[in-house]
Amino acid sequence: MRRTDVRFMFFIPCLIALTVVACVILLMHQMFAFTHSYILEEQHELQEAVDNFIKSSSSLIINKNFDEVNKKLKNLEVGISIFDDKKNLLASNISLNDVYKEEEPYINSFIYHINVVNAKHVDESRQIDIKGRKYYLRTSMPIDEMADLLNRTERNIFITFLFGSFIVIALSLYMFFKVRNPFIKLQKSAIKISNGDFSNEIFVPADGPFVQLSLTIYKMAERLKSQIKELQKNEDFRKSFIEDISHEVKTPLTGILSSLGLLKDFVKDSQVPPNIKKCLSILDNNANRLDNLIKQILSLANIEDLSMLQNKNFIKFDLKTAVENALISCKSMLVESGMKVNFQISESVEIMGDIILIEQAVSNLIINAVKYSKSPVLDIAVTKIDDKAVIYIADYGVGIAGIHVEHIFERFYRADKARSRELGGTGLGLAIVKNIILLHGGTIGLESELGKGCTFRISLPCAAD
């Protein structure tokens, strides 16, 4: 799994955190909007109450009948303090302090006490004129209940924020210790298994959501280990059996070939019936076919053994040299068939590998073309594409049907079985080529069309500079 997939698991706590913050912001906004609306409403009520008081008490104030004014003030729900133009208190129904004696700050202004600590009342100071005489009013409306409600709301929002933060932190810790860490360890174990490495034990957490999954992967890995050991045991037995049989057959076959050689020499100088010569020719032909088959089997087994080695003894060499050596080894066959070879190389291309095996792969493809293509020309080209060395081997003969192309590199597969037997084919030549290319970390492909020929494309990693 990619790193972004692991990070995605933390989307849930992040989403919860964003939701909590958004809710807190929304609640605070609504609270401030409500507070502002409420204060404006209280301010409006306070103004109306003061205006009504002034209308009903202006004659008493002018006549300086402040005892009656005080009586009227006691019946009001709002607090009012009346000062003369020298800021001397004339009447009041609220407790006073020295701040009321300050002149300018409280003239024609509202003072709101709505914070958490002092949210108790809404105040207004104004200057009034009654029949040419100036008076100053200090008015106040209590909002104790609303202030308590706002304080409780603010406290609840803060508690909600703390609770949400706690949930986010707890969930993040859970995701980190119970989800992320076990998941990453399990992921690493699964990657090693997918790469064929069973050396490490599968991590199984003591608890959490991945316990059952870890146990399942652990059991699967143990079963795979057992099956791989059994398969390896069978493969070793198969290889050993093939090699033993091949060697056991090769020993008497060598004697048979030697004896046939002596008999052929004797027949040349002797008068023997034609049917005897024909029998000797059949024996010699089939003995050579069997000898070639055994060599191919042993060669394929050797290449498969090399592919199991971690550190292959590869050297840097030029592909031009390998192709030229392959052409030299096939020279007599090419001359005998009359096939013309065009070899082109655009630049020096070096790879890391076993030059003898690469020569063998190219030789097998050339021999295959000579035996089966019936092409008058064979084009061979070596080039470099990006960081790959590419070999093209193309003939213009009979070609191969599409249904055979995907199987052509399989062991013992023959596109034309009758013609292969007639020409002594084993069905292992292209399988050997594919295994050699795979051993070098490359790829091989075939493009073919009946009646137009075949083009083999070998791609190999270039050697580092």
Provide the fold topology.
Layout: H1 3-8, H2 11-62, H3 66-74, E1 79-84, E2 89-92, E3 109-113, E4 121-130, E5 133-142, H4 144-194, H5 211-268, H6 274-307, E6 315-318, H7 319-329, H8 331-337, E7 340-345, E8 350-353, H9 355-372, E9 377-385, E10 388-395, H10 402-405, H11 417-423, H12 429-439, E11 443-449, E12 453-461
Parallel strand pairs: 7-9
Antiparallel strand pairs: 1-2, 1-5, 3-4, 4-5, 6-8, 9-10, 10-12, 11-12
Quick description:
The chain is 58% helix and 18% strand.
Mind describing the biggest β-sheet? 5 strands, antiparallel
CATH class of the largest domain: Alpha Beta
> Helix share of residues?
55-70%
CATH architecture of the largest domain: 2-Layer Sandwich
Spatial strand order of the main sheet: 2-1-5-4-3
Order of helices and strands: HHHEEEEEHHHEHHEEHEEHHHEE
**Bulk shape:** rod-shaped
Percent range for β-strand residues: 15-25%
Uncertain residue segments? 97-119, 417-421
Number of separate strands: 12
The secondary structure category is alpha+beta
Query: How is the CATH topology of the largest domain named?
Result: Heat Shock Protein 90
**Through-space gap between termini:** 34 Å
CATH superfamily of the largest domain: Histidine kinase-like ATPase, C-terminal domain
Number of helices: 12
Count of distinct structural domains:
3
